[in-house]
């Protein structure tokens, strides 16, 4: 059975003067001219995410969060903040998850693979903060950092690896400076 693979993530942004800018995860370092356009006083009025599959098909993803591809390109991870993003079209399951289990892994076709489980305690002050570089222990997996709404900010984050086949995060002994 052939797996569906993701080629790239596209962000299509429209500005208040009607100009469309397309940013690709393949051209991250090139820039799209959007930021130069914004520096001239224009504003983004819509921003949509798309997953472009290896066969050229584009699938609209109804959120405006950062999309991080899995290393094997069979899916992607999304971390949700406390409130849905400004340009998100979907604001509930399966496209929005509240703290503490505020991230999910999706398949290449956009279907939910699973919600990442940080804790079973829904009153926990912990939440998934952000994506991070791969851990030394698990260089073949995506990594995330954990934060707390009630604890003071520490100068280091603890890195957790994301297993693309299991909703439980893998704790690493690695820390990174904030």
Offer a quick outline of the entry.
This protein has one helix spanning 34-38, and strands spanning 6-15, 20-24, 44-53, 58-61, 67-69, 75-79, 103-107, 112-115, 126-132, 143-148, 156-161, 170-177.
List its salient traits.
4-stranded antiparallel β-sheet; mainly beta; single chain; 178 residues
- Helix and strand string, N-terminal first? EEHEEEEEEEEEE
Q: What distance separates the N and C termini?
A: 43 Å
Fraction of helical residues: under 10%
Number of helices: 1
Helix-strand category: mainly beta
Biggest sheet, in brief? 4 strands, antiparallel
- Domains counted in the coordinates: how many? 1
| Overall average residue pLDDT | 90
- Beta content: 35-45%
Total count of strands: 12
How are the SSEs placed, and which strands pair?
Elements: E1 6-15, E2 20-24, H1 34-38, E3 44-53, E4 58-61, E5 67-69, E6 75-79, E7 103-107, E8 112-115, E9 126-132, E10 143-148, E11 156-161, E12 170-177
Antiparallel strand pairs: 1-2, 1-3, 3-4, 5-6, 6-7, 7-8, 9-10, 10-11, 11-12
């Amino acid at each position: 059975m052939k797996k569906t693979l993701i080629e790239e993530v596209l962000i299509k942004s429209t500005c208040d003067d009607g100009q469309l800018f397309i940013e690709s995860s393949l051209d991250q370092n090139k820039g799209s001219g959007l930021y130069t356009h914004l520096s001239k006083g224009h504003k983004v009025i819509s921003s949509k995410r798309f997953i472009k599959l290896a066969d050229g098909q584009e699938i609209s993803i109804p959120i405006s969060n950062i999309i991080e591809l899995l290393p094997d390109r069979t899916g992607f991870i999304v971390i949700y903040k406390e409130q849905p993003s400004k340009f998100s079209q979907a604001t509930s399951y399966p496209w929005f998850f509240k703290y503490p289990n505020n991230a999910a892994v999706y398949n290449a076709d956009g279907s939910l693979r699973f919600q990442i489980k940080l804790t079973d305690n829904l009153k926990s002050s912990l939440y998934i903060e952000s994506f991070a570089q791969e851990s030394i222990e698990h260089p073949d997996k995506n990594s995330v950092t954990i934060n707390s709404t009630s604890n003071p900010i520490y100068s280091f984050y603890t890195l957790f690896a994301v297993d693309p086949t299991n909703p439980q995060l893998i704790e690493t002994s690695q820390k990174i400076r904030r």
